[in-house]
Amino acid sequence: MQSKKNTRAAHMGSGGEQARRPLLTILKAVTLGLLVTMVLLLLFSFLFCRQDLPLTLLNPLAAFSLLMGAFAAGYWASRSIGQCGMLTGALCGAALFLVLLIASLQTKAQVDLTALIKLAISLLSGAIGGVTGVNRRHGSSKIKPRRKEVEK
């Protein structure tokens, strides 16, 4: 009989191997989160170029892009690692925010209240993504629908 840890690693495929190297997994997840964030920012910038959208939407759409990137990073990392979803997701969100903060400081941007709000958004959405990723069932659902009994 396999232990619960071995069974989980067998269901996860290569994720079992990644569970032994969580730092590498988090680095890959942050890369995925950056990719998701950049794709959404490109999509929103395209919309701003094509449509006459008010500039007041700029910060909320940037925050939404960060939210989705942190969620994706936390989800993927915790699903690959298979444990400590909230912590793994929050670490992914913090790392994603740190990378984006360093990039924005290169353009001499100021760190203000908006940056703290985006830090909170990335931590929370990463943690939620992590919890979702850990609690997601692997493969098909184990819950089978009830059969209706046929009346005779």
Automatic annotation (TrEMBL):
<dbReference type="InterPro" id="IPR023804">
    <property type="entry name" value="DUF3792_TM"/>
</dbReference>
<keyword id="KW-1133">Transmembrane helix</keyword>
<keyword id="KW-0472">Membrane</keyword>
<feature type="transmembrane region" description="Helical">
    <location>
        <begin position="115"/>
        <end position="134"/>
    </location>
</feature>
<dbReference type="Pfam" id="PF12670">
    <property type="entry name" value="DUF3792"/>
</dbReference>
<feature type="transmembrane region" description="Helical">
    <location>
        <begin position="84"/>
        <end position="103"/>
    </location>
</feature>
<feature type="transmembrane region" description="Helical">
    <location>
        <begin position="60"/>
        <end position="77"/>
    </location>
</feature>
<protein>
    <submittedName>
        <fullName>TIGR04086 family membrane protein</fullName>
    </submittedName>
</protein>
<keyword id="KW-0812">Transmembrane</keyword>
<feature type="transmembrane region" description="Helical">
    <location>
        <begin position="21"/>
        <end position="48"/>
    </location>
</feature>
